[in-house]
Write a structure and sequence with these properties.
Layout lengths: L3 H6 L4 E2 L7 H25 L4 E3 L2 E2 L4 H12 L7 E3 L2 H22 L1 H23 L4 E4 L3 H12 L7 E5 L2 H9 L3 E4 L5 H6 L7 E4 L4 H14 L4 E6 L5 H7 L3 E4 H14 L1 H11 L5 E7 L9 H6 L3 E7 L2 E4 L13 E7 L10
Length: about 350
Amino acid sequence: MKSREQAATGRGPLHFASRRFSPVRNITVRLLVALAALVITAIIVYLEKGCYADRGLTGTLTPIDALYYATVSLSTTGYGDIVPVCESSRLANIFIITPLRFLFLIVLVGTTVEVLTQRTREEFRSARWRKTVKDHIVIIGYGVKGRSAARSLTENGVAGSHIVIVTPDRAAVDEASRDGLVGVLGDARREDVLRDAAVEKAAKIIVATNEDDTSVLVTLTARRLAPTAMIVAAVRESQNADILRQSGADTVIPTAEAAGRLMGLSLVSPVAGDLMEDLLDSGRGLEIVERDITRAELGLAPSDIDAQGQIVLAVVRRGEVHRFDKSGVTILEQGDRLVVIRSGDGHPGKSDR
């Protein structure tokens, strides 16, 4: 649930990739720093024991007295029973022990300081991100479908800071942050949550929720906020695909039935099923990409590209798709884009999209 301030401003926290340490490690480091400051102070005091007076007696400090003075001095208790009487010891208190006192106090209140610092840093990063982000990709849902979509995007050269995950699951937001993505915690059916993800400035939106009714509501809201964005939505039941298209989705993927068809194909034709699995699995040999034609491909026929080891499925010319089975394209022109099947080897950047 959002705080009163967040509700008033319409802005919730963004979760960025960050390095996290365990609570035990944080506490151990702080204790060691505090102990080091205490020991250093005690050593300095004991080395100048002749310049400290204990209840008016000079030069009588023992190691225990030095440790006692260091403790009450660093903790700012200051009973006044042991005091520096020489200029050298007073200068040491000013230039050495006082900074150690500040360090000791910072360690003692480190949790509060860390929370305030982290909150300020996150607010600064969130404000800067919202000010500069544009044409990013929003993925709604970070289950199996959402994670796979994000992984496919990053493998094809999309920066993690350009991908925003929206999910009500805190564990999923933390996982997205660890994966280098930007996370927004909240229910994507709410307009203010989508605004937190700057949906109105997004170029592409992926709706990967687990329920079709949720997908419809999210798509309706996202389309109203981002009328020009491309929306790709997953649907479990194919009969709901038309509803999603009417809600504003440009592309609808029937996940459950597609998986069922692939399993049936694998039984009827194992080779065809294996090829389809190969195309769908980014970790295997083949991939389908849409790319611009190269300078060397100008004036060639699509069949010439096939001879080079890439199978042309379609040519996109001025927004019109010419499929291989119905294509009237005989010569490739400037500005054409190709949809091809190619080997995934030798394309580490995969930035053709």
